[in-house]
Amino acid sequence: MTNPATPAAILDALRPIIDPDFGKSIVDLGFIKNLKISDGDVSFAIELTTPACPVKAEFQKNAQERVLAVAGVENVTIEMTSQTRGRSAAPKGPGPDILPGVKNVVAIASGKGGVGKSTTALNLALALSATGARVGLMDADVYGPSIPLLTGTSGRPEIEGQRILPLEKFGLKLISMGYFAGDNTPVIWRGPMVHGLIQQFMTDVEWGELDYLIVDMPPGTGDAALTLTQQAPLAGAVIVTTANDLSLIDARKGLAMFEKVQVPVLGIIENMSYFTPPDLPDRKYYIFGNGGGKRTADEIGVDFLGEVPIDPRIVEGGDAGKPIVIDAPDSIAAIAFTELAGTVARKLAVLSETGPEIADANITWAAS
Predict the structure, then answer these.
(1) Looking at the domain assignment, is residue 88 inside a domain?
(2) 129 and 276 part of one domain
(3) pLDDT in tens, 112-157
(4) Percent of the chain with pLDDT over 70
(5) What is the pLDDT of residues 308-348, one digit of tens each?
(6) Selection from 175, 257, 251 nearest residue 216 by Cα
(7) Which of 82, 113, 137 corresponds to the end of one domain?
(8) What is the distance between the alpha carbons of residues 175 and 165, in angstroms, rounded to a whole number?
(9) Which CATH number characterizes residue 43's domain?
(10) pLDDT at position 247
(11) Residue 359 is assigned to a structural domain of this protein
């Protein structure tokens, strides 16, 4: 008669499974939860650090095969779960809490306008939400808010007590200056007014519990961008650029801004990288240049996250409030956004375990 399997034997069988981001065994990382053995039946959960893990199915298959090979095991039931990790902000002084229920605040930035930053921010947020994560999107581009158009949302947010309730669409919580100003109303504000609005977005909006809050940053390094880098507890930043030299020069300026406030730059996304004609699926036309984003990332010492191709449906869907990740999920561009979202989520998970604590958001800039 075969001796019954033991918890130690099960864990030993699972120990060779290595998480590619942490470089450690899923057993040593504490991913194995609720291990139960009843006669020949074994059940447990594998709790990942993000629902966007690309090797989730591979982990499950590998674990199933390894545990079934253990003497005394007849059946294996594996539940794949996730617990999104987050970087906690350093204790701060008196004043309202800054985004207390948000695990990861991620800035999507560009050195200049016109590179598709807002479209990238929205589609990354949607791709993260599709994995089961709780996601919000803050449109902090107060001078040119575009999230209302891109999502097909409008109307003033409701107020409950002293709290602003974000609008919701596609499973995202949304806030934007565009909900407070008319479509044809120019936004002409001075620095202190911008500062106050962004402060309200972070302290007065009822974001609730979120795994990720994606912040669509204003282009450049002006008042609004500086206010956000000073006050938001940013876990990381992503810089969006195109391959042409002017965009790449401005991308470097954005990187310098985040370095000054010690916000990790997760990497660079090259948007509108190439065009593939529908009738020539094997051809790529590099309209704005080839490989500029990768070269810039290598030069400044950050990761190159990937390319997003030109797809007319991105523009058409944006004008109609139909983001490509929702409207054409099987398109090359939508798949690229989904893969990029997974990469960003995994980088944040690693940072939550290995990176330094987020600096106090209330930073005072000194004249140089």
Answers:
(1) no
(2) yes
(3) 677 888 999 999 999 999 998 999 999 988 777 889 999 999 988 9
(4) 85
(5) 999 999 989 988 999 999 999 999 999 999 999 999 999 99
(6) 175
(7) 82
(8) 9
(9) 3.30.300.130
(10) 64
(11) no
Per the document, the length of the chain is 368
CA distance 48 to 86: 13
Average pLDDT over residues 180-197: 61
Q: How far apart are the first and last CA of the chain?
A: 78
Residue 348 · residue 236 · CB < 8 Å: yes
Token pair, residue 227, equals 């206010």
Do residues 270 and 297 lie in contact, with contact meaning Cβ atoms separated by under 8 Å? no
Mean pLDDT over each residue of the chain, to the nearest integer:
84
Count how many domains the chain has.
Answer: 2
Mean pLDDT calculated for residue range 38-61: 88
The DSSP letter of residue 179 is G
* Interatomic CA distance for residues 251 and 220, integer angstroms: 9
pLDDT tens per residue, range 257-288: 787 778 899 999 999 988 888 888 888 888 88
Task: Check whether residue 289 and residue 156 sit in a common domain.
Answer: yes
155-169: per-residue pLDDT in tens?
Answer: 889 999 889 999 999
Residue 246's CATH number? 3.40.50.300
Residue 96 located in a structural domain: no
Contacts of 107 (CB under 8 A, 6+ apart): 215, 217, 228, 229, 232, 234, 236, 237, 238, 258, 263
Could you tell me if 155 and 119 lie in one domain?
A: yes
Tell me which residue range forms the domain holding 268: 102-354
The per-residue pLDDT for 75 is 95
Place 232 in a pLDDT band, splitting at 50, 70 and 90.
confident
Domain-located, residue 40 = yes
How many CA atoms are closer than 13 Å to the CA of 178, on its beta-carbon side?
Answer: 21
Q: Which of 82, 115, 136 is the last residue of a domain?
A: 82
- Considering the domain architecture, whether residues 62 and 166 belong to the same structural domain is answered as no
Alpha helices (H) along the chain: 7-14, 56-68, 117-130, 147-151, 191-203, 223-231, 245-260, 292-300, 312-319, 324-327, 332-354
Q: What is the number of other CB atoms lying within 10 angstroms of the CB of residue 101?
A: 13
Question: Would you say 263 and 230 are in contact if contact means Cβ atoms under 8 Å apart?
Answer: no
Tokens 């807002």 belong to which residue?
118
